[in-house]
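Data deposition worksheet. Section B asks for the primary sequence of the deposited chain exactly as it was used as input, without tags or linkers unless they were present during the calculation. Section C holds the resulting structure in token form. Section D is free text for depositor observations; keep each observation to a single sentence. Incomplete worksheets are returned to the depositor.
Section A, Depositor: J.P.
Section B:
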Amino acid sequence: MATTTQRKVLITGGAGFIGSNFVHHWVKTYPQDRVVVLDALTYAGNRSNLADLESHPHLRFVKGDICDRPAIDYLLSEETIDTVVHFAAESHVDRSILGPDAFVRTNVVGTFTLLESFRQHWNSRRQPQDDRFLHVSTDEVYGTLGPADPAFSETTPYAPNSPYSASKAGSDHLVRSYFHTYGLPTLITNCSNNYGPYHFPEKLIPLMCINILMGKPLPVYGDGQNIRDWLYVGDHCSAIDRVIQRSQPGETYNIGGNNEVKNIDLVHMLCDLMDELAPHLPVRPAHNLITFVKDRPGHDRRYAIDASKIRDQLGWEPAVTVSEGLRQTVQWYLAHPDWWRPLLSPEYQEYYKAVYA
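Section C:
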């Protein structure tokens, strides 16, 4: 796809964590493009994530549900969209255990609705070769790894272990089928654990940062030995950009940070950074707040991404180490209490009690 041609991009879930970071990336990198952000603004979607882009002349925000087929049809046609980047999803494993129905609706039915609408739109425009539908997915669809197992590759069999990962696996299969059955120019990316600015405080890294600042316990599941591959969100955005620009339809790419870290080690790294960067902590040293809690049901032991395909075919590699990325992330949360404090709502407090009580 030529970078000199103006694209008309629909970004679903663009007010969420990864989505809003991608909106910032795309608008900065391709200021001539038309960008339409669609987000239902449920609990994790936050319009303030895009506050500094509100006046951008080529950006439009639409509040809407990806399951609303008439609204999707109208939006694709009205804006003559040629590129869909699909982030919109329910994404938190703990919430999927408490209430899986929302995950099936958004992740499976919502993705199906987008695919059908885009297929109709694409056919009505005589199937342009440069159109793209990129579906953002997760490494969790592959299940869990043992300590010595090779990292997940694009050919690893699917073995999801939570309602969340099962719903994402279902959506991946739908996207793949629309390429093979209808020729729709789809792409799939499966990423490892993201972190960085605008991350809703239920997830591990922002949860630890905020609890340290408030002097609250730092809940660590089980023995804390679960391993994740941590990917800085800015690196993830650049990888998705590269896939849209350079890959062929029907491809799948795993995107990882090359940063395997045990959960307990990650928490200690965050505690050390907070001790260094935050001068007025209510509890110091912060690691005194670490509290081990009952393990999550079906908790996958290890994730690891083999990102050699995207490196070898598209020339992408992560640029940010986990130590650099964590420092930048901690500094962001320290500088933006006005962003995260309003998110600690009564609904969030009830969820927190249900998970960690």
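Section D:
The mean pLDDT is 96.
Residues 282 and 302 are 33 Å apart (CA to CA).
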